[in-house]
């Protein structure tokens, strides 16, 4: 926790400095330290995304950017911006920040941390964006812009990968600067995402900031749309936000399509990144085939698609059973899943219905556009893979609009009670395991360790085996399905099984240079025997 505090002070200073630099390019999002920092996040993320095509985003990239940011922080005396807060608000902000740092010091427990976030950041810091990386491990094809941003600070500024905690502190600064008190109610829930560089936290916090700016009359459509597309590039399920800003620019504000150009450029960069790593414009959808030779095998994509359908039903039914559902059965079984997920699904439908009624009663154009955007997003998610993690942001948006009138006193009271509950769960996870056993992440929480008060908790495993199929020599974690600290190149055991079932296997485009990327090839008889030996070892380990 102490080291996180020092890391936060350093990174906030750097982001402030870079925000000042970027404001000369993008203009002011809004005046204040939080607006400056957010502009810095936007600028650094885009710069590092471009650089990642050519070089690893490692300490050699980090040092000059840190140095320049610190230089501008002191040259422009940006530290004076923090003195603009009243004494009372400064104390409250400090207390909330300490709660954030404490919560983020726990061991990561989200499984994607080990199978997706950390492996992605390892590839970015060692090789940058690698062509056709999805052929090695399909999950890596996402290469979220947020993980590129995290990679840029992972050398020495934030080796603990707690950038989400720092963003939560920025979010707190924004709330007090803009006096959007209802948003204090969201911080306790977001504490659950602070131990990992999960893209869910940035897209939720940033979308609520953009939404508040729109509702309160910020007419800088150019920057609003730029940030909206940036959020979409972090996680494409946030498509409702750029759609909302576009509709506002056409139906509420005077249309000026030149304002949309920066956002369109970011969108193009997003497509290029995905084409490079995945072979298609939007991960994981195999639409927009431009014939790139490094795109994933169609059979592997089919297996992934079937898995996504099963995840919709929390793996409680086989793919064949789901395919035989009638439309009525599909909806009924989704709403009556065993465990907590059925309650979340029901709440989701009820929330959309309530918000639609609220919209009809209010008859305000901006609220109507928010409702339309959310409904479009919801229909897309429901048709693709109706997992609650894809529509969790909808709850935050609806709560924000319905209760935006919350006073500072009410919001602080709500924040305090819920924070005590969430921090209690993180510190003593037996509570949630006993009372909500169907909340699976609770099984991976470890509780309070005294060491985390100095240094945030992090796992080390580093048990792996090395194998070779064709020209690809790779590592695979033993007795564990994920490769969060396995030396690169590493493949998850699940994808090895999928590849062998499809009778293909990833190969290096250049046997001497991993940076040149990966393609898939059909297995020769000799390669098939080698691959099956690896698969048998995996199955024996599972037993």
UniProtKB/TrEMBL annotation:
DUF8201 domain sequence ranges: 1-396
Any Pfam family the entry gives: DUF8201
InterPro entries: DUF8201, LIC_10190-like
Protein name: DUF8201 domain-containing protein
Domain of life: Bacteria
Swiss-Prot/TrEMBL keywords: Membrane, Transmembrane, Transmembrane helix
Membrane-spanning ranges: 41-74, 90-110, 159-176, 188-211, 223-253, 260-283, 344-361, 366-384, 390-407, 414-432
């Amino acid at each position: 926790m102490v080291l996180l505090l020092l890391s936060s002070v350093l990174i906030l200073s750097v982001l402030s400095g870079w925000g000042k630099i970027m404001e000369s390019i993008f203009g002011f999002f809004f005046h204040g330290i939080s607006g400056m920092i957010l502009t810095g996040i936007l600028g650094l993320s885009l710069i590092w995304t471009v650089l990642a095509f050519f070089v690893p985003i490692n300490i050699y990239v980090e040092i000059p950017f840190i140095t320049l940011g610190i230089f501008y922080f002191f040259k422009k005396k940006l530290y004076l911006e923090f003195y603009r807060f009243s004494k009372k608000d400064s104390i409250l902000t400090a207390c909330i920040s300490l709660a954030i740092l404490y919560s983020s010091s726990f061991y990561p427990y989200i499984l994607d941390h080990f199978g997706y976030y950390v492996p992605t950041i390892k590839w970015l810091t060692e090789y940058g964006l690698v062509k056709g990386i999805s052929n090695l491990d399909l999950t890596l094809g996402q290469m979220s812009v947020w993980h590129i941003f995290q990679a840029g600070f992972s050398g020495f500024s934030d080796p603990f990968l707690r950038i989400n905690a720092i963003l939560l502190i920025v979010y707190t600064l924004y709330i007090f600067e803009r006096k959007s008190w209802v948003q204090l109610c969201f911080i306790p829930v977001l504490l659950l995402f602070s131990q990992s560089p999960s893209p869910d936290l940035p897209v939720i916090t940033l979308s609520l900031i953009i939404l508040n700016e729109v509702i309160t009359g910020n007419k800088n459509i150019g920057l609003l749309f730029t940030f909206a597309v940036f959020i979409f590039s972090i996680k494409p399920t946030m498509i409702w936000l750029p759609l909302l800003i576009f509709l506002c620019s056409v139906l509420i504000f005077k249309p000026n399509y030149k304002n949309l150009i920066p956002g369109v450029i970011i969108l193009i960069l997003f497509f290029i990144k995905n084409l490079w790593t995945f072979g298609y414009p939007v991960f994981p959808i195999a639409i927009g085939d431009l014939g790139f030779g490094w795109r994933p095998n169609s059979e592997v994509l089919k297996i992934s698609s079937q898995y996504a359908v099963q995840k919709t039903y929390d793996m409680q039914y086989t793919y064949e059973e789901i395919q035989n559902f009638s439309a009525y059965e599909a909806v009924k079984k989704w709403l009556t899943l065993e465990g907590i997920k059925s309650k979340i699904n029901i709440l989701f439908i009820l929330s959309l219905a309530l918000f639609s009624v609220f919209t009809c009663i209010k008859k305000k154009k901006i609220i109507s556009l928010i409702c339309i955007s959310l409904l479009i997003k919801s229909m897309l998610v429901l048709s693709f893979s109706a997992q609650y993690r894809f529509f969790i942001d909808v709850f935050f948006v609806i709560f924000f609009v319905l209760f935006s009138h919350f006073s500072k006193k009410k919001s602080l009271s709500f924040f305090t009670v819920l924070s005590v509950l969430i921090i209690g769960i993180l510190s003593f996870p037996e509570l949630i395991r006993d009372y909500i056993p169907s909340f699976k992440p609770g099984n991976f929480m470890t509780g309070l360790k005294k060491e985390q008060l100095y240094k945030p908790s992090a796992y080390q495993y580093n048990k792996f085996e090395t194998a070779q199929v064709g020209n690809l020599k790779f590592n695979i974690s033993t007795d564990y399905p994920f490769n969060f600290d396995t030396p690169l190149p590493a493949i998850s055991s699940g994808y090895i099984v999928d590849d062998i079932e499809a009778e293909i296997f990833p190969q290096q485009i250049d046997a001497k240079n991993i940076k040149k990327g990966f393609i898939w090839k059909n297995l020769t008889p000799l390669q098939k025997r080698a691959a099956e030996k690896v698969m048998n070892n995996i199955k024996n380990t599972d037993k």
